[in-house]
Automatic annotation (TrEMBL), chain B:
Major subcellular location class: membrane
Keyword Ribosomal protein listed: no
Signal peptide: none
Keyword Nucleotide-binding assigned: no
Keywords noted in UniProt: Cell membrane, Membrane, Transmembrane, Transmembrane helix, Transport
GO biological process: phosphate ion transmembrane transport
Family (UniProt): Belongs to the binding-protein-dependent transport system permease family. CysTW subfamily.
Organism: Thermoanaerobacter wiegelii Rt8.B1
Protein name as annotated: Phosphate transport system permease protein PstA
Ranges in coiled-coil conformation: none
SUPFAM superfamilies on file: MetI-like (SSF161098)
Parts of the chain that traverse the membrane: 12-34, 68-87, 99-123, 129-147, 181-202, 264-283
Localization annotation: Cell membrane
Amino acid sequence: MTVDKNYERKRKLVNSFGKAIVFISALLLIIITVSLFLFVTSKGLSTFIKDGISIKEFLFSTTWNPDREVPAVGSLQFIIGSILVSAFAIMISAPLGVSSAIFMVEIEKKLGQKILQPAIEIFVGIPSVVYGWVGLTVLVPFISKHFGGLGFSLLAGILVLTIMTLPTITSVSTDAIRSLPVEIREASYALGATRWQTIRHVVIPAAKSGILTAIILGLARAFGEALAVQMVIGNRPVIPKSFLEPMSTITSIITMDMANTAMGSVWNDALWSLALLLLIISFTFIIIIKLVGRRGMYK
Amino acid sequence: MKSKLYDKIATIYFYAVAVFLILFLVSLISYILYQGRTKLNIDFLTSPPKFMEAGGGIGPQLFNSLELLIITLIISVPIGLGAGIYMAEYAKPGLLTELIRLSVETLSSMPSIVVGLFGLLVFVTMTGWGYSLIAGALALTVLNLPVMTRVSEDSIRSVPNSLREASYALGSTKWQTIVKVVVPAAMPGIITGIILTAGRIFGEAAALLYTAGMSSPALNFSNLNPSSPTSPLNIFRPAETLAVYIWKVNSEGLAPDARQIADGAAAVLLLMVLIFNILARWLGSTLYKRMTGEK
């Protein structure tokens, strides 16, 4: 049998060429991430370098007068706004999300997989402007009518984000709970524990790190969500004193003001600094998830 | 005895949560579709929007959304698939692989407004393209790449090793094995993934506000000159999408029927996402059945 040398050479060439192509594709992901960090960082730092505004003023002052002659870009109210709206949303969606995950894995496997799982996937798929629109046309008037105020409020933001973070928390914690070995449940039942006792004392503790990851991912989604929140919170640059008051978040002020400002103005630079802050926060969440995952692996 | 009672209460609670969520979803979907029902007609879907007067449609926006989706997929699917192949078949544990993985995770949880600003800086300003379809597509590519990579990697990893070994035993090279055996076997998962991410791309707005822009010049569908601003083939024209339009109508809607328009647009957007979802499910299971020879 003779080997066609030309064919063999071509085959080897294609083999290395293919490897090179997929390697470059993967490298591209690093390149995009690095350049995203570099560009946003260099723009975001100009508030402090070029415009001479101190980081302390930016982070800890609430005076937001970016269009005055002597611009003030204190952004504490946006930072606190983002924290409030995300934290309260997670406080509601985390218990609901984890409960529905438990329902799908521990209580009603078939029904869960046939009905609840697809439902959760549709929740994920609904675009954020649609959530925002429903929030604006249903939730805002409802709050205004039954609780008073304008309706555009912290409360409206919290409720919209609750719905939007719920599917993230549910699907990630479902995966975590599903991946637990069945033996630990059997061992618990063998000791005479009820299903609830097994869930509470065995399943949840064993899936702890996965559930924590789910909650942090939900928090990251809440923090980064822009339009749905912006549509219902009223966009007043103040720290809300009650659940019914209008407010702003980091994302909402960027969304609202970016189009009105000229590149290079202090106002515009401050928005980039907020974007940089958002980038740092979102990266911090990822690092925390990595640490949680490394420490809490169930073996 | 007490523990049995608690167990019952807990069971009731879990059922209540599940029933509540499903009822909530059903009422949310029916509300959106009901509100938009009068607008679900050909005229609304194809005619251009009107300013200051009632009766405008969403034709150009709907078309832009679809065009943007297709261009984004054309760019991001090959790269994402390539990166997925690398991660599943070639990557060795080490610093580089860790970095790629970290990049994927960082990008996939990146707030889309930040990606939009990055797009504004790089694809709109630095390239000099201005607000354009291509700038929007590139921003969406940044959002979609990590998802595509992960979907491809997972699907490729789940292909059983026996298939690879059989291919090597026939004397194939690694690349031949990947192209002819592994990727085809991973196809059902990859296609399901593509369709699901398509739904996400279709509904994305925050990343597009400052890349594809918030205006859409009238389109002339008989104009096929790619450099003409009214041509649907011109990828350098500003291209407001359906999702962006809903946001814009709410914040600065000038038409007297702005509310109805947004209701209609939201219903269309939701319907498209539902169709993508059902399509992904159906296609996924059909392809899987065909692959495994199960009729």
